[in-house]
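Protein modeling request. Please complete all fields; requests missing the sequence field cannot be processed.
Requester role: graduate student
Desired output: 3D structure, token encoding
Chains: 1
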Amino acid sequence: MNSVLGKLIQKEFGRNKYKIYCNKLDQKECMDIFCDIYLALNRSSEEHLSDRLLNLLRTVQLSVKISRVFYYITAGFVLAILALSLMPAVLEIKAAAAGILMAAYLFKLTEYVANRYCDRDVRLVLIYKTALFHVLSDEGR
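Delivered output (141 residues):
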């Protein structure tokens, strides 16, 4: 599962470029990534750049929201399991309900971990943001 930040880079530049950028990050060639992104953005229209900036802001907000909401999801999961264990119901129904709750919680947990610990994607997005701001400031001159 990719983080929402990684999905943004893949959407904006393609999967192949994303893999190339990841390899360059591992080799500590960040300036090459910046130059490539800057040149790609420099060919875009001002309207397209504004759309990209808006997508970047929304994606970063979504990433932060996923982290914030996860604590409430965890509390709700614990309360639901407690309530389920205290309910006077047939054991098979309790087990099925607990299984469904566990599957949903595991999905949200993987989403949280993928977005919380995506250092590579965060670095790529910071390079992308810097290049985007440079191109937008050059457009304003």
